[in-house]
Structures are given as C-alpha cells and as structure tokens.
Amino acid sequence: MTTPQRRLDAAALKGLAHPLRVDILDSLAMAGPATASLLADRLGESSGATSYHLRQLARHGFVEEDPDRGTGRERWWRMVPGGLTLAATDMREDRAAMDSTILVARQFADQRARHVDTFLRRGEAELGPAWVDSSMLISASVRMTAHELDELTDAVEAFVSERLTPFRDREEPPEAKVVALHVNAFPVVGVDGDGS
Start and end of every HTH arsR-type domain (predicted)? Predict the structure, then answer.
C-alpha cells in the first residue's frame, strides 16, 4: 500500500508557516500521538500555545483527533496519514506563499539538523553500537545539469518509496525504533564564482 502524498497549496502552506506548528508536526511524526499538554512538555511550550496551534493545524488538515485515545476532557492528536510535498514551483506567482514555502522548508531543515546532531551526540550511548553501525550519513558532490538533477531526484524518490512500503502499516517488531531518512540533492549556491 502506498502512503498518499499531500501537495501543499498556498492556503495550507500559510497555515503551516509557523515554527511551533512545524515542531508539533515533527513531534507527532517522530513520537506519535499526543495531547496538547504532552506536546508542551516535549517542546518546552505552554499547553495553551500547543492547543491553539493544534487547532490551526487541524483546520488546515495536517492533524486530527485520535479516535482510539483520550476521553471527553483529554484530546489526543495525531498526524493525518500520508506525506507532505512542498513544491516551490506551485508558489512562484504568489510572493507571500513563496515566503511561507521558504520559512517552512527552513524549519524542516533545522529539524533535520537537530535530529542528526542529537544522534551524533547521544546515539551510541543511548542506542548501542548496532544502531550506530547500521546508520549512515552520506555526503557527495558531482557536477550535473538541472535536467539530470531532476531525473536523479525522481529516481531516488521512487526508490525510497518502494523500499519503505513494506515497513508501513505493519505489526511493528518490539525492537523497532523511529528511523528518519533524509535525502538532500540540490545545487550548491555560490561555488562557481558567478553567484549561481
């Protein structure tokens, strides 16, 4: 079964364009469903702030109440199933939407860096050598055209999607952990001496 991808439009993107909302989504993705109070503890925020931003995220279709948890007084929230696609090409005609795209993309990039940093600092001590040995951080560079880069990113996306499909919607083994997979492919700006 393929997990559906949601391509963000300008209205949805503007609803996500707040650092705490992106952090809430990341927390729900990494640690699972939570209440506003639990998210406040995880993120070092007030429960009033997380509650407000959860309602905004729900209004824009990013999160939903978890029907399997909670009581009348305790609301549990989870991410709406599926991935998110942020495409700058959809926003070029709307400067405010483009600014929101950049803000959200930068917040996601900051989260990735924080996750990598935490893994490097604490991974071996908290998870053990088997988890560290099975992980990888790769960096490579090569010269290519925009068309070649487009073909490469399409191929990598298809490969990753195919390889992750067996791990979705299954009975998780007790020793399973949340694993983040980040693939970046972009032209390096400012190295050719022409500002491009």
Answer: 11-89
